[in-house]
Design goal:
- With about 240 residues, the protein is an alpha/beta fold.
- The chain has one domain.
- It has seven helices and twelve strands.
- The strands form four sheets. It has a four-stranded parallel β-sheet with strand order 4-5-6-7.
- Strand 8, helix 5 and strand 9 form a beta-alpha-beta unit.
- It is globular.
- The termini are far apart.
């Protein structure tokens, strides 16, 4: 007797994740809310290395290959208690490849904010990870909004990753242009930078926000230190 095979149909990026969320219109990107207290973690530990984190005061980040945290995107409820042990969670750094279709880039912005919003509504302190792809994601040449920044609130704390972003002229150009657009659009108070932080790229914005530099995990394990642009700026009440 032949068994019937049930078709598995995509349910639309797990709509249950955003039950109760607020959305940035017109594209309906879930919002990761700014909190009344800003927390600057002492370090950022990648998701796949979280069992080796120096302390639970760390932030868990996703600055690694998407395949390493794919299960978080598929089964976020499984990690609620795991992430709750840590002081800070940075929303998933889903890749926005510039040569990917714009619909794919937009979907990964959505996934980033949907997962971040999901954990935030379950009591986790969440910092939005900002990632942009081609110019259509960080300018208004296609959409009326800069879609890379939707779902993150202004005048708060953000995270960016720079690993691989300065390899070649084109990568450097798009990172610098996207950073400029991010600073103009979101006007963050604090920006956590995972990776390198070249003065030529970040220097013009130092007077507008406080930047905190975190070495990538490999560099950190070889003695790299977490450096703050303004010593002692650990936590503060948001205005």
């Amino acid at each position: 007797m032949n068994k019937k095979i049930k078709a598995i149909i995509d349910d639309g990026c797990n709509p249950e994740l955003v039950a109760g969320a607020e959305f940035a219109l017109p594209l309906g990107i879930p919002i990761i809310k700014a909190t009344s207290k800003i927390i600057v973690p002492p370090g950022i530990t990648p998701f796949s290395m979280r069992r080796r984190a120096p302390s639970f005061e760390e932030a868990v980040g996703f600055h690694e290959m998407d395949v390493n945290f794919a299960d978080v995107l598929r089964n976020p409820e499984k990690y609620i208690d795991d992430f709750a042990r840590f002081a800070v969670l940075i929303s998933p750094d889903c890749s926005l490849y510039r040569d990917a279709p714009l619909s794919v880039q937009l979907t990964n912005v959505y996934r980033n904010r949907a997962i971040g919003s999901y954990y935030q509504r379950r009591g986790q302190y969440v910092i939005p990870q900002i990632r942009w792809g081609n110019e259509y994601t960080y300018t208004t040449k296609y959409f009326p909004e800069r879609i890379a920044f939707l779902g993150a609130e202004r005048h708060s704390i953000l995270a960016v990753g720079t690993y691989g972003c300065f390899n070649g002229r084109e990568n450097k150009y798009h990172f610098a242009a996207g950073l400029d657009a991010m600073m103009e659009t979101l006007e963050p108070k604090i920006v956590l930078v995972y990776g390198s932080m070249p003065e030529k790229v970040f220097g013009p914005y130092m007077k507008y926000a406080k930047f905190v530099l975190y070495p990538d995990w490999t560099s950190r394990m070889h003695g790299g230190k977490c450096l703050q642009s303004v010593p002692g700026y650990e936590t503060s009440e948001a205005d």
